[in-house]
Amino acid sequence: MKHRSIKRRLVVSIVSIVTLIWLASSGYSAYVFNDEINEVLDDALVQNAKRLIPLAVQDDSDGDEAKKSDQTPPVAEAENESYFLYQIRAKDGHVTHFSHDIVKRPFSELLVDGFQDLEGFRVYTESIHNGDFFVQVAEPLDHREEAVMESLWGFLIPLLLVIPVTGFMVWWLVGNSLMPLFRLNRDISKRGSDNLTLFEHRHQPQELLPITASLNGLMQKISQAIYAEREFASNSAHELRTPVASLLAQTQRLIAVSEDNDTRQRAAELEQGLKRLQRLSEKLLQLSRADASVLRSGETSSVMTLLSFLIEEYQRGTQTDQTIICDEASLHSLEWPVDMDAAAIILRNLLENALRYGSPQHPVEIFSDSDHALHVVNSCDILPKDQLQRLTNRFERGSYQSEGTGLGLAIVDTFVKHGSGTLTFYSPARHRSDGFEVVIQFPSA
Q1: What are the TM regions of this chain, as residue ranges (predicted)?
Q2: 407, burial (CB in 10 Å: exposed 0-12, middle 13-18, buried 19+)
Q3: How many domains in the chain?
Q4: Would 425 be classed as within a structural domain?
């Protein structure tokens, strides 16, 4: 579905309405302008007719000579009106005088005072001397139409220039007015999923204040819900540690002193369950810290130093012969821009995940590449792509037969995201036909 732009819709609507108003006003103005021009030109015809009356009066006094000569003199060019044509006619219709640029043929058969439109001319007729003579002044209608069209084009051409200028100004004004909305949109778009800070509202226009207030209310509710969830997980884990440790000690004591094999077997099963619960409480504590952490505090952590300590600790506390191979040459210079506790939690979970789900007959490989990315590779069956995408979900296990909590990679993912790093999974591992590979890369310290 195509979403229409508010800015585009406003600009098109406003420019269209303004254009229609301009066209309507232009049409009305053209109508009024045409009437006014016709009135002015008609008045010019009347004035020119008045100027010819003295000539007709003189013709009346010399009427006998004009009849004798049988010559009809043209009107003198002193009038200097190239668009107006003149005739002075006797009451019998005979043309006594005419302008220099027309033939002697009369304008009309009937001699009636007033205006007439005759054969492409606008003619004004005025009688004098009680109807003995008639003065006729004519103007070509083409001249009138040309004058009207030139005047209208002089009015419309600026309008054609005003429309795009108006469109540009409306576009700029609408864009400038909608700028607070665009800023709010950018602020929302740039926020990550873990950024729940309130939106700035002090400089927002009145129309956006309800939206900003609703967003801030939603942010506060989400923050409170997440805080309550973290507090519950953290408090539950803290409260479980002491009783679980106490129960575990009592169970181990029972195994040591009991002489009944059945009792010792049941106590051993209880011990395993308590150890799983103990691991779960530890993971919940780590997860609550990961959710609340801000890792880029200016500290750096040496990955190789932490790995050496964790590997030694793991080998002392387990009864497995599984090998861990660290490429010390590549890892020696690798440092992460996170505090040491967070880096240790990340590495511990990666190491536990590789050892728990990897094949015991194949070593776990840990190395760094030229881009300062950490690689942890273990041997296992190929994982489906849909399962790879779910591995960072909480309580998601690579193998449901495993005794893992399903929180290790979720904890790693949370820490890495808070440190602006990237976490990538590969199965099969790169350059291998099977296995699982985890790649972590943080920005430069």
Answers
A1: 152-174
A2: buried
A3: 3
A4: yes
The candidate with the shortest Cα–Cα distance to 135, out of 105, 114, 104, 109, is 114
Q: What is the dihedral of CA 285, 288, 294, 299, to 10 degrees?
A: 10
DSSP 357-424: HS-TTS-EEEEE-TT--EEEEE--PPPPHHHHHHTTSTT--S-TTS---S-HHHHHHHHHHHTT-EEE
Q: Which domain holds residue 238?
A: 193-292
Tokens of 35: 């009437």
According to DSSP, the β-strands at 364-368 and 422-426 are unpaired
Could you say which DSSP state residue 428 is in?
S
**241: in domain:** yes
**CA-based nearest residue to 412, from 306, 327, 234, 289:** 289
Strands (E), 232-326: 301-302, 324-326
* Geometric angle at alpha carbon 348, from 432 and 320, rounded to 5°: 70
Q: Is 391 exposed, middle or buried (0-12, 13-18, 19+ CB in 10 A)?
A: buried
One domain, residues 414 and 347? yes
Reading the block at residue 441, the tokens are: 């890369």
Count Cβ atoms below 10 Å from residue 238 Cβ, excluding itself: 13
pLDDT tens column, 131-165: 788 888 888 888 888 888 887 787 778 777 888 88
CATH number at residue 199: 1.10.287
CA distance 96 to 89: 5
Q: Is residue 340 exposed (0-12), middle (13-18) or buried (19+ Cβ within 10 Å)? A: middle
- Identify the CA nearest to 324 among candidates 300, 357, 354: 354
Edge-first strand order for the sheet with 121-128 is 95-98, 85-90, 133-140, 121-128, 114-118
CATH number (domain holding residue 64): 3.30.450
User: 301 and 240: one domain?
Assistant: no
Query: Are 161 and 251 within one domain?
Result: no
Looking at the structure, do residues 166 and 313 belong to the same domain, yes or no?
no
Question: 210 preceded by cis ω (within 30°)?
Answer: no
Per the domain annotation, does 185 fall within a domain?
no
Boundary of a domain, candidates 292, 314, 342: 292
For the stretch 197-229, pLDDT in tens is: 888 878 788 888 888 889 889 888 887 877 777
What percent of the chain lies above the pLDDT cut of 90? 11
In angstroms, the CA 344 to CA 305 distance is 10
pTM of the predicted model, to two decimals? 0.51
